[in-house]
Design a protein that fits this description.
With about 325 residues, the chain is an alpha+beta fold. It has three domains: about 110 residues, Ubiquitin-like (UB roll) (Roll), CATH 3.10.20; about 120 residues, Orthogonal Bundle (Fumarate Reductase Iron-sulfur Protein, Chain B, domain 2), CATH 1.10.1060; about 80 residues, no CATH class. The protein is built from 14 helices and seven strands. It has a five-stranded mixed beta sheet with strand order 2-1-5-3-4. A two-stranded antiparallel sheet has the order 6-7. Helix 7 packs antiparallel against helix 8 and helix 11 crosses helix 14. The longest helix is centred in the C-terminal third of the chain and has 17 residues. Bound molecules: iron/sulfur cluster (SF4) (2 copies) and FE2/S2 (inorganic) cluster (FES). One iron/sulfur cluster (SF4) binds next to helix 5 and helix 7. Pathway: Carbohydrate metabolism; tricarboxylic acid cycle. Belongs to the succinate dehydrogenase/fumarate reductase iron-sulfur protein family. It comes from Richelia intracellularis HH01. Keywords: 2Fe-2S, 3Fe-4S, 4Fe-4S, Iron, Iron-sulfur, Metal-binding, Oxidoreductase, Tricarboxylic acid cycle. This is Fumarate reductase iron-sulfur subunit.
Length: about 325
């Protein structure tokens, strides 16, 4: 079958341009097979990263039809099926189907599909991405773990550091201090490992400002995009639960986070993000330091057109409120 690959090409610090390549290929060919074919037979100047060809190394992440994923994981057939292409019938307009390829987002382009991943690795480094065993009580032999303890780490250990989640993360886009879904998922991996000695220190670190877990906007993109099923947002939520469980003081920020979130959803059916920032971080203007800490983020959001200046309550807000009240009553009875 014939297919057109539209590849967004770019040199460093210059405007991107889209280049089209016509290929004869099979639905079972991976996107990486097609890019290799272009490079080896049509245009040797096309730049992209790859290594294992088997979803292990994480180096071939790019945007395929607007979605960040691995070029060696996706194939032509599945991509066209997502676009609604029917292989059993001839295209009505006889048009050659197209697949678009672009570099990862949130990272500067070096050339074509090769991005500069420095901020990705720097953010990972900041969360101390290894089990820390500085304790003096070292066992004589190896550290032992029960199968139950190890099973808590299974999902997050699947991360291959491909950068797909970072590319789609809304928080990274507006807040360069935010550690990123990959780093916080790795943070949970070490935090949940009973061999790690930095449990409390990690909790405090991840609980700080908008660079840690509270910078996540819960947009869910990282969960839906991750090609390895790591679900970074779920790992961030697990850290939040630990923090909430550890703090009992009513005016602590984690407790306020939960209360403000609940009140806003009860009021408007969904979250009024302007109020959320003010009520949570500035504690209703009582915490001037907190207010100042979110000011740069607010300005960047305004500059990027991501700050909502008005708020419309969602439809069915009464039902949402009734549902939440009923759940609360049930919880009180239990
Ligand atoms: S969490 Fe998933 S998407 Fe993010 S870097 Fe790891 S494997 Fe890639
Ligand atoms: S859920 Fe949080 S960490 Fe994941 S992409 Fe959205 S903002 Fe980023
Ligand atoms: S080439 Fe290694 S993950 Fe795709």
């Amino acid at each position: 079958m014939q297919i057109i690959f539209k590849v967004l090409r770019q040199q460093q610090n210059s405007a991107p341009n889209s280049k089209e390549y016509l290929l004869d290929t099979q639905p079972s060919s991976t996107i990486l097979d097609c890019l290799n074919h272009i490079k080896w037979n049509i245009d040797g100047t096309l730049a992209f990263r790859k290594n294992c060809r088997n979803t292990i190394c994480g180096s071939c992440a790019m945007k395929i039809n607007g979605r960040s994923t691995l070029a060696c994981k996706e194939n032509v057939g599945s991509e066209l099926a997502k676009l609604g292409h029917n292989f059993s019938t001839k295209n009505v307009e006889d048009k050659i189907p197209e697949i678009t390829i672009a570099p990862l987002g949130n990272l500067p382009v070096i050339k074509d599909l090769v991005v500069d991943m420095r901020s990705f690795w720097d953010n990972l480094e900041k969360i101390v991405p290894y089990v820390n065993t500085t304790s003096e009580n070292l066992p004589d032999r190896e550290f032992l773990q029960t199968p139950q303890e190890r099973s808590k780490l299974d999902q997050v250990s699947n991360c291959i550091m491909c950068g797909a989640c970072y590319s789609e993360c809304n928080a990274v886009e507006v807040n360069p201090d935010f550690a990123g879904p990959h780093a916080l998922a790795k943070g949970y991996r070490n935090f949940a490992d009973p061999r790690d000695d930095e449990h409390q220190k990690r909790l405090e670190e991840y609980n700080t400002g908008t660079k840690g877990i509270w910078g996540c906007t819960r947009c869910h993109y990282c969960n839906s995009i991750c090609p390895m099923g790591v679900a970074p947002m779920d790992q961030i939520t697990k850290i939040k639960r630990e923090i909430l469980a550890a703090k009992t003081k009513n005016e602590s920020r984690p407790i306020r986070h939960r209360r403000v979130l609940t009140e806003l959803v009860k009021t408007g059916g969904w979250i009024d993000e302007r109020q959320f920032g003010l009520q949570l971080t500035s504690n209703y203007f009582r915490d001037i330091r907190g207010l100042l800490s979110i000011a740069p983020l607010g300005l960047r959001m305004i500059a990027k057109g991501k700050f909502p200046f008005s708020f419309e309550p969602s439809e069915g807000v009464e039902q949402v409120r009734a549902l939440m009240n009923a759940a609360q009553e049930q919880k009180d009875q239990d």
